[in-house]
Amino acid sequence: MSGKDKATIIVFSDDIDKVLAAFNIATGAAAMGMDVSIFFTFWGLNVVRKERSAKSPREFLKKTFGIVNRGGASRLKLSKFHMGGIGTWMMKILMKKSMMLSVKEMIGIAHSLGVTMIACTTSMEFMGVDKEDIIDEVTRFAGVATYLAMARESKINLFI
What we know:
Layout: E1 6-11, H1 16-31, E2 35-40, H2 45-48, H3 60-68, H4 86-97, H5 103-112, E3 116-120, H6 121-127, E4 140-142, H7 144-152, E5 156-159
Parallel strand pairs: 1-2, 1-5, 2-3, 3-4
């Protein structure tokens, strides 16, 4: 135990606006000196998936699911007003004009601040995602018991 205050965040969604909020909170808490962990599960795994999969799953359903559900931080969509991609495109332009960091940049900042990023192994198995498909900034692969143990010790626990 480090003796620092702890915060845990579950990222269940792959909506760009929700993911940006999660990383904004995580990096803010880490900058305040807290131990921060982000647990990516289900659709949240898309945030930490590489743009190109290392290999394709053998099972037909997992392979088909992987084709439809492509990952990568630059492919995330808005939760509202996506409008076939126009809303997300407009949002990214506004983010650039406002000098707001992209999700990829936020992942790098979080990593440099020591935020622990964990990929849910149960979701990975279910969705046909291998460790090789996950970005290098993710340093742990674990199940819900690991997350619950961390959440039990945390002062802040968020579900996004």
